[in-house]
Design brief:
Layout: E1 4-7, E2 12-15, H1 21-34, H2 36-42, H3 45-56, H4 61-75, H5 91-95, H6 101-104, E3 113-115, E4 120-126, H7 142-146, H8 151-156, E5 161-167, E6 174-176, E7 181-189, H9 198-204, E8 213-219, E9 230-236, E10 244-246, E11 264-265, E12 270-274, E13 279-285, E14 290-292, H10 294-300, H11 308-313, E15 319-322, E16 327-331
Parallel strand pairs: 1-15
Antiparallel strand pairs: 1-2, 3-16, 4-5, 4-15, 5-13, 6-12, 7-8, 7-11, 8-9, 9-13, 10-12, 14-16
Length: 335
């Protein structure tokens, strides 16, 4: 079936080209069932590194570049990129490109605004059964996602809300801080390298909490903060993602530093970089602290758009394509 999403700026329904979808479907519907040992090997760190190398730096790079050239013609703007397009002459350089985000991705003026951490396709959900966007246990297992030994954060985000941002190979792959606040905790969780393709997500169920990921807990109720309580930013690797590089910069891309406990993150600044592949960022919010943007909420229930998530999970789940640093939600209160 088709997988469609809403282009936010035009409100048009778009059909996504799912790169490698036939391979992903075979891997997750065929190999996973008939050869579980092989499936585990194919979603391991070693195979992910080999696939990433082959597609972005090795013998398959020329074929991948043809695909990315098409995407560049469709959506990668020469005016946005810091480097001339002719210097982006390998798939990896295209993938890791830098943009003039301070010009082409302006921040909203509202200090209580939460912004998108990435150029991505976005869905919103709730862990509270009383919510009409209750989507528990579909994209991730809650305790597994944050780390089962992190009782403090499990209590903090219990019955809260979350947003999923799915990056595709042609996207700008720097992640930016969605809020301003102080880092209370920062930790890595080991795991697999499952694909984040919609077909794989529906087939596997809770893949994001099975993959390797980096968790950053941000306190926004501090001086200069966004005032939306605690926010968990979870960067999730995927098939052909070899690494998540922490590279926070206070100005443009200058003097990047690793993220750590005690650091203050300015809203909208570059925080990390996904190394080649498709990948996902998940944001988690405390209960009753955040109000989702009206258009993103309405788009989720668009009856005219076909969604693999909607069919697979039996709910209306239509993604909205959002731009990094664009408004996605705001504070309900500052208490």
């Amino acid at each position: 079936m088709k997988h469609q999403y809403i282009e936010r700026e035009t409100r048009k329904i778009k059909t996504e080209y799912l790169y490698g979808d036939k391979v992903v479907r075979f891997l997750y519907s065929g190999i996973k069932e008939s050869a579980p040992w092989l499936f585990r090997q194919l979603t391991s760190a070693k195979i992910t590194w080999l696939l990433s190398y082959a597609n972005y730096r090795g013998f398959l790079a020329a074929r991948m570049k043809e695909y990315l050239d098409l995407q560049r013609n469709l959506g990668i703007s020469a005016e946005e990129c810091l480097e001339p397009l002719e210097l982006l002459d390998t798939p990896q350089r295209i993938f890791e490109r830098k943009i003039r985000y301070w010009q082409c991705r302006p921040l909203p003026n509202d200090p209580a605004a939460i912004v998108s951490p990435a150029d991505a396709k976005m869905l919103y959900g709730s862990l509270a059964e009383t919510s009409n966007i209750f989507i528990k246990g579909k994209y991730f297992d809650y305790e597994e996602m944050l780390g089962g030994n992190k009782k403090t954060w499990l209590r903090a985000f219990d019955r809260g809300d979350f947003a999923v941002f799915r990056l595709t190979p042609e996207k700008y792959h720097y992640n930016h801080s969605p809020v301003a606040g102080k880092v209370l905790d920062f930790y890595n969780i080991s795991g697999s390298y499952h694909a984040c393709n919609p077909s794989a997500v529906v087939s596997l169920v809770t893949p994001y909490s099975k993959n390797k990921r980096v968790v950053t807990i941000i306190d926004t109720d501090v001086k200069g903060g966004t005032g939306v309580g605690l926010v968990a930013m979870i960067e999730v690797v995927a098939l052909m993602i070899g690494d998540i590089v922490q590279c926070y910069s206070k100005k443009e891309y200058e003097n990047p530093v690793s993220v750590g406990t005690g650091m203050f993150l300015e809203k909208g600044q570059p925080k990390s970089l996904f190394r080649p592949g498709s990948s996902t960022v998940v944001l988690m919010f405390q209960s009753g602290r955040v109000r989702l943007a009206d258009d993103i909420y309405a788009n989720m229930f668009n009856p005219l758009a076909e969604s693999i998530y909607g069919v697979g999970f039996g709910k209306s789940l239509v993604e909205t394509e959002v731009m990094v640093r664009s408004f996605i939600a705001s504070s309900i209160n500052n208490s």
